[in-house]
Amino acid sequence: MADSVAGSLDGLTAAAAARVNESARLNRLIDEAQAKLRRAIEVMAETMADYRQGLFCSGCGKTKTEILKAGDTFPHPGQQILRPTLAQIAAKEREMQQPVDRAQSELKELVAKRDKNAAEREEALAKMEAGLALWNTSLAYERQAIEWRLRQSERAYNADRQTLDHTAAQVAGTTPEATRERDRIRQARATLEKRQRQSRDDIAAAQSRLAASAADQQRRIDSFLARDPLPRVFSGAANITPYFLPNASFNDLGGLFRMGDFNVARNGETLARVEAFIAAFRRLPAVPAAPVPPADGTTQQKVKDVLKELLACDPEDTECRKPGRHGGTGVRG
Predict the structure, then answer these.
(1) pLDDT in tens, 292-304
(2) Total Cβ atoms within 10 A of residue 75
(3) Considering Cα of 186, then 187, then 188, then 192, what sign does the dihedral take?
(4) CA 212, CA 147: separation in Å to the nearest integer?
(5) 321 in Cβ contact with 330 (< 8 Å)
(6) What is the chain's percent helix, strand, coil content, to nearest 5?
(7) Which residues are CB-neighbours of 119 under 8 A, at least 6 positions away?
(8) DSSP readout, 113-147?
(9) Widest distance between CA atoms in the chain
């Protein structure tokens, strides 16, 4: 899950960065469109003021303002100042309204694009935050699973060693039977110690693999978060949280991460895969308590069972004992 989340953050951060850049571009275009609309309204107001006063040239039909701005005389030589009819005023107003309408339509379209882009940007940024949380949950899940495995291994080992120690204390005398029993106990101890060393080595290797993969994922995620201009709008970072509690809220554990999806229409939705993962994380068992020694009435039978199974193993065979036998959980790696 941790590697899958890290991979999903690649595309998600790229999409978020694109939308942040698009926000800046659309804001510039909206500013330009607003200026264009204001100018169109001003031109319409000036033109219609001239028209209503009858200040336009009989030859070209342009208003006094338009002609004077061009550096010409008003009216043009040989022409007259005309006063428009009501029909002419209405026609001119319709003509001057067209640039205003186009500017308003352009502005409306840009605002709609900006709003859509902003919603997608915010959704992507929120999902980035959820992704970082789920990544940490995934690492915590594996750390706690390895810790549980280590505790179970040590618990089973200590129980078996205690059983053998108890047996050895019961063997007395120098009879051939006692000597053979002590030899069997020494062999069983050697097998137990060898198996436990292998188990500890396996668990240490698992911890090293987790640390290496987490560091690699952290470097990758940091590179994704460094995409310009994300550092200016997103303060999250791929920090590995040492202690992550299963009883944290669903959202704090990254439950809203949709593995890279940031469709605004799906805001608030969750993935069944993520829900199941978090539920499994929350079901992780608590660290087991120290083993309770068996009552006196069961001690001898426990001794016999442990000796029987351990002595049946070749000391070189680390796969001999299986999890769950004689009350233990096994010490296999």
Answers:
(1) 334 444 444 554 5
(2) 19
(3) positive
(4) 17
(5) yes
(6) 70, 0, 30
(7) 264
(8) HHHHHHHHHHHHHHHHHHHHHHHHHHHHHHHHHHH
(9) 145
Structural contact between residues 5 and 257, judged by C-beta atoms closer than 8 angstroms:
yes
Q: 110 CB contacts (<8 Å, ≥6 apart)?
A: 26, 29, 30, 33
pLDDT, position 134: 97
Q: What is the dihedral of CA 97, 98, 103, 108, to 10 degrees?
A: 90
CA dihedral defined by 163, 168, 172, 177, rounded to 10 degrees? 100
**pLDDT at residue 82, rounded to an integer:** 79
Quick one: tokens of 238? Answer: 């791929």
State which amino acid sits at residue 49.
A
Is residue 238 classed as helix, strand or coil in its secondary structure? coil
The pLDDT assigned to 324 comes to: 41
Residues paired with 81 in a beta bridge: 57
Question: What whole-number distance in Å separates Cα of residue 147 and Cα of residue 141?
Answer: 10
* 160/145 Cα distance (integer angstroms): 23
Q: Which residues of the chain have pLDDT under 70?
A: 244, 286-333
The pTM of the full predicted model, rounded to 2 decimals, is: 0.72
Backbone angles phi, psi at 42, to 5 degrees: -65, -45
Burial class, 130, CB count within 10 angstroms (exposed 0-12 / middle 13-18 / buried 19+): buried
Give the position of tokens 């939308």. Answer: 19
